[in-house]
Write a structure and sequence with these properties.
By secondary structure, this protein is an alpha/beta fold. The protein has one domain: Spore Coat Polysaccharide Biosynthesis Protein SpsA, Chain A (Alpha-Beta Complex), CATH 3.90.550.10. Helices cover 38% and strands 17% of the residues. The chain contains eight helices and seven strands. A seven-stranded mixed beta sheet has the order 3-2-1-4-6-5-7. Helix 2 links the parallel strand 2 and strand 3. Helix 5 runs parallel beside helix 8. The chain starts with a strand and ends in a 10-residue tail after the last helix. 41% of the residues are buried. The model has no long low-confidence stretch (mean pLDDT 86).
Amino acid sequence: MYDFTIVIPVYNEEDNLERVEKEMLDYIKTTDKKTSVLFVNDGSKDNSEAIMKAICNRNDTFHYISFKKNCGLSAAIKAGFDHVEAPLVGYIDADLQTTPQDFNKLLEYIGEYDLVTGVRADRKDSFVKNMSSKIANGIRRAFTHDGMDDTGCPLKIIKTEYAKKIPMFKGLHRFLPAMILLQNAKITQVPVRHFPRVAGEAKFGLWNRLLGPLLDCFAYVWMKKKYINYEVKDKK
């Protein structure tokens, strides 16, 4: 039984996966948590699936699930959460613009909190990407009041019991802290390092970073009004 499983969505990342393997193996050696890796292949059209399977075949701590077709980042993250059995689940992107070594920073807080998310310090992205993300985060905060500065940061740890209760919907990766708050849980953010993408291509354009999240905010407001929490008092 693992203490911590790290979910890595994969979509056309053939040039990054062997580097992911190396960095994840290096990280596993540094943590006192018994850690596994779960790739979620989101219908990749390149050689990602074959490379991913080869990595899993030569490493007992690496596992994968593979979609029949491309379903999007939110579906890949949710599928990962649904398949995790460890009490803690982490999330990192396959482009490694954040480093798994910073999971150790987040783990320092997960005892007190139910979700710990990174905040990308000194982001190594283009001006347009940085500005669109800042605007999108500001709009999202106005709707959700989650107090988070960078929900798009692809470095998070969540207690699995809360991650599994997150409903499936497009855009959920932008609302993970807000969806944990709806469960009356506690969240916090921690600064983490950020690096330029060294291989592959970004999967999101201006629509995905700005206009798409605005529409998702209205869906979140509807969901918040309809969300139900319950606690079982007794059972036999």
